[in-house]
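Hey team,

Filing this mostly as a record. A colleague (T.K.) asked me to run one chain through the structure pipeline before their review meeting, and I want the input and output archived in the tracker in case anyone asks later how it was produced. No errors, nothing strange. Just documentation.

Input sequence:
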Amino acid sequence: MLLENKIAVVYGGGGAIGGAVARAFAREGARVFLAGRSEAGLERVAAEIAHAGGKAETAVVDAFNEGAVDAHAALVAEQAGGIDISFNAISHGDVHGALLLEMPYEDFARPVGNALRANFLTTRAAAREMVRRGRGVIMGITATTARHSIPEVGGTGVAFDAIESLYRQWAAELGPMGIRVVWLHTTGIPEAFEVTGAPQPAYGTGRPMSEAELVAWLTNRTTLGRLTTLADVGAMAAFVASDLAGAMTGTGVNLTAGSVPTR
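Output structure:
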């Protein structure tokens, strides 16, 4: 198994993306610590992991709370003997559907501030434990919004750009200490969408879309004619966290099905 005897913390572990990553880590032999604000979601993912024969523990942690994040990481390291992997799948409170001309600054800035705060705090907390043993892998997730010019996405693209820039700096500072920092660059992931039946933003197409139309529109922007799946994210996260990807840091893994060419 790729991650046998590794200790992994997944922030946002009760959500769709965090849950997929946690399950993949557990399948590959990691002991997984799920952290997030929804106890019900965390317990559901932990039960699924246990049912499949894996190991998972849960803790309600607010990733925007500096003291809570630091205390949780220290507790995990004390209980498990260290932290090998940290994955941040925290949502940012994005607001879509309005042009910047019409958007309150708070709605624009919220995802940017949330993304930076959560990724900074969780990375710092995990890294402080990793440096004690001189090894570790820190990961997060971004999307095509960081590269495409799309209207009506508020601060989402800026937030993803900020995460990537932040991770490059963390990689530069943590690399000499034996710690790698990588993000997964994805398309929209329909399995992670909140299905409401409500009209979706136009995103420059001229009219609001249904959820099915939105998925079709996103798909048409790819080369492979498909979008990133939760299985894609989980499998790649497990690979990147493993020693097989030991030379990879300060970069994103392109899972965009060709919608964002690699330069």
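Quick notes for T.K.: The chain has seven helices and seven strands. The first helix runs from residue 16 to 27.
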